[in-house]
């Protein structure tokens, strides 16, 4: 816990430092705010002219929410040949602050899901698992530009490594279906982000039909 707080504190300090100079990356309030915090409130997803989402290169300075380890869904048993990946979830700091205050996500929220290979037996760790190279990267964005359902999903994966930008998956994609059906708050897996889940329960923003019972019946190919 101490470590998480330390990392978050460093991230905030770094983000403040970056936000004060990163005017081109800020949006609506660019140049109008006279404090670093106002600039930070303006950060969020950035898009190319063709509507594709630009992969953020500073997400490691955002707020770290949690790591899932070797997660599988439905009856898919853990596969011994898999690399037992870690899923690290980050959210932009302005959205995090809004959630802490309200229990919900504001417009222009952006999440990065960073999937990393795990390693064993790297000196001096004999039996546990540590994080290694990035395997995949995905994003979820809440943006009013998306229409009635503001949530859109993106993957930066390709055979040649991570792409610089990505188009949104269509509303029929598995991302939308699983996220709409199994999430505790809006379309996000707040049940796996322990400090935020407590806030959502206190603010009464947990989806009324959410329960921890597993309801996926069929094997699901995730990614
Ligand atoms: C079968 C269910 C399932 C499918 C399909 C799925 N996800 Fe997720 N996703 C999860 C779970 C569970 C988490 C919780 C975090 C974790 O993995 O540790 C998550 C977390 C995320 C997050 C972090 C923010 C959040 O919503 O909590 C992003 C970003 C994300 N997924 C993107 C995608 C994208 C893009 C796709 C489609 C290519 C996708 N997901 C498909 C189950 C799913």
Short description:
The chain is of the alpha+beta class. 25% of the residues lie in helices and 21% in strands.
Architecture overview:
The protein has 223 residues and is an alpha+beta fold. The chain folds into 2 domains: 1-43, no CATH class; 47-203, Chalcone isomerase. 25% of the residues lie in helices and 21% in strands. The protein is built from 5 helices and 7 strands. The chain has helices spanning 2-21, 36-41, 93-102, 174-182, 194-203, and strands spanning 53-54, 63-69, 86-91, 109-119, 130-142, 151-155, 165-166. The strands form 2 sheets. Strands 2-3-4-5-6 form a 5-stranded antiparallel sheet. A two-stranded antiparallel ribbon has the order 1-7. A hairpin with an 8-residue loop joins strand 5 and strand 6. It is globular. The protein starts with a helix and ends in a 20-residue tail after the last helix. It binds heme C (HEC). Heme C binds next to strand 3, strand 4, strand 5, strand 6 and helix 4.
